[in-house]
Amino acid sequence: MNKLEIPEHIAIIMDGNGRWAKKLGLNRIFGHRNGVRAVRETVEACGEIGVKYLTLYAFSTENWHRPSDEIEALISLLVEAIIKNTPDLDKNNVQFRTIGNIASFPENVADKLNQAVKFTSKNSGLILTLALSYSSRWEITEAVKKIAEKTAAGEIKPENINESVIEKYLTTYGMPDPELIIRTSGEQRLSNFFLWQGAYSEFYFPAVLWPDFNKKSLFKAVEEYRRRERRFGKTGEQIRQEKDLI
Ligand code: IPE
Ligand code: IPE
Ligand code: MG
Q1: Total tally of structural domains belonging to the chain
Q2: What range does the domain containing 34 cover?
Q3: In this structure, what is the dihedral angle of CA atoms 8, 13, 16, 21, given to the nearest 10 degrees?
Q4: Is 63 annotated as catalytic?
């Protein structure tokens, strides 16, 4: 694939674990366990084609409303996967990050996550971000609070608040917006993910359930992305003219 047409940032809403397990007559947790393999393949595939940022929506603010045994299983799978895969991520030069309300997890879980972040912080390859206890409305609310505090303290003037000031207070500060957002399982909604960052993202909704997602599925998504024309409010003619000038 032509490097120029590879998205710099891909974000994925990993959906369909429960339905995948149900189809096999097994419980939802079995689906989550099998979702971990799909994560590994996706990380590898992104590394292979030179994606710089991969963000995975793994647990939403609203997911705290699930039955407690499912939440507990998800959390222990998460810790297990982090402990097991951090050395490999490190070997592959992957920098691991998290976004979300990490403090809402039990202390030992937050510690494990922060350790993995620290351990891989010097790596210069793929930046893998897990969105955990994350939601856009939570993030935007937090940003508004911080900006309001600074404004009250006289550190920010209201007339100087612009999009870049707001971006500074989002959890994704420093990351480019995702060019491509994929949601598996056929559902076509954002479920409170990247409401700000996804303003101009291309959306792709494959029917595949997350545990069946593999390298080929990722490459197919990128192929589809390359066929799109991103116009950012301009006309198609303008965009094609600009392309010819490059
Ligand atoms: C995605 O799969 C994983 C999380 C939200 C944690 P689901 O658990 O939502 O699976 P479905 O949508 O019920 O099939
Ligand atoms: C969205 O999936 C959250 C994650 C994939 C982490 P859900 O399965 O929780 O979303 P809804 O409830 O179907 O919208
Ligand atoms: Mg779901």
Answers
A1: 1
A2: 3-245
A3: 80
A4: yes
